[in-house]
Design a protein that fits this description.
Layout lengths: L16 H11 L8 E5 L5 H8 L4 E6 L2 H5 L6 E3 L12 E7 L8 H11 E12 L5 E2 L3 E3 L2 E3 L7 E2 L6 H7 L7 H10 L2 E9 L9 H15 L9 E8 L2
Parallel strand pairs: 1-2, 1-4, 2-3, 4-5
Antiparallel strand pairs: 5-11, 6-9, 7-8, 10-11
Length: 240
């Protein structure tokens, strides 16, 4: 069985652009107010904190890493695998899977579990790496040797390689919109909204420069160049 790299959690500093940007698609369709929210693969819990800030009835963070949860400020967190959720059926209004699917050996099982714990017409917010982004942001592996990102940006054009090449060296999966929609529909979800997100630049220390660059990148997200963005954001509804 292929082993993929563990995801790096979003830091909690209170001003992460990537968090608010990823949640925009969901919040354009519904609010967190009085909702039961599960963040499956929560890391430190940044997205749960936003849900609570916007009036969620309860937000639960779930992660496989005890280390991440130990540092999390969340009131409710669970140490568990997203493929085996320890919740009863139909108990959440919203499930978040932020940059999680690409790290899993069984993406199908994770989506089955998400559908199971969602209420009728519950919403799933899913974000994944975009295959057409020119840089492979998860690095690569050659045998037992792992090669991290180059210059903190990524490995150029590895994401564009044929699948049989990627399978030999990838540390995480990547997706096209078509592939993602097919996977979601087979697991009982219907996509309602899709957006593309350019790099959020949260690690850029010069904040004024980051703000200026984000404004420029948001303009690109409104053009055909969005298809070369870093992330795909999809909001889906349970249909069966």
């Amino acid at each position: 069985m292929t082993r993929y790299c563990r995801g790096a959690p979003t830091a909690i500093s209170g001003w992460e652009y990537g968090v608010t940007r990823r949640l925009e698609a969901l919040q354009s369709l519904t609010s967190f107010k009085d909702k039961m929210v599960l963040d499956a693969g929560c890391g430190f819990g940044a997205y749960c904190l936003v849900a609570e800030k916007h009036g969620a009835k309860m937000s639960v963070g779930l992660d496989i890493s005890h280390e991440y949860l130990k540092e999390s400020p969340l009131d409710f967190s669970v140490l568990a695998d997203v493929c085996t959720l320890s919740f009863r059926d139909s108990c959440f209004d919203i499930v978040l899977m932020i940059e999680v699917l690409e790290h899993l050996s069984s993406e199908i099982k994770a989506l089955e579990e998400a559908r199971r714990v969602l209420k009728k017409k519950g919403l799933l917010l899913l974000t994944v790496p975009n295959k057409f982004y020119p840089f492979e942001t998860h690095g690569m592996k050659i045998g037992y040797t792992e090669i991290p990102n180059m210059f903190g940006i990524g490995i150029p054009f590895l994401s564009w390689m044929p699948n049989f090449v990627r399978k030999m060296v990838e540390r995480a999966k990547i997706y096209t919109q078509k592939q993602l929609f097919n996977i979601l529909r087979k697991q009982g979800f219907e996509p309602l909204k899709v957006e593309y997100m350019m790099p959020p630049l949260d690690k850029l220390k010069r904040r004024k420069l980051a703000v200026a660059l984000r404004k420029f990148l948001r303009k690109l997200e409104a053009t055909w160049l969005k298809y070369f963005a870093c992330h795909i954001i999809v909001v889906s509804i349970v249909i069966k």
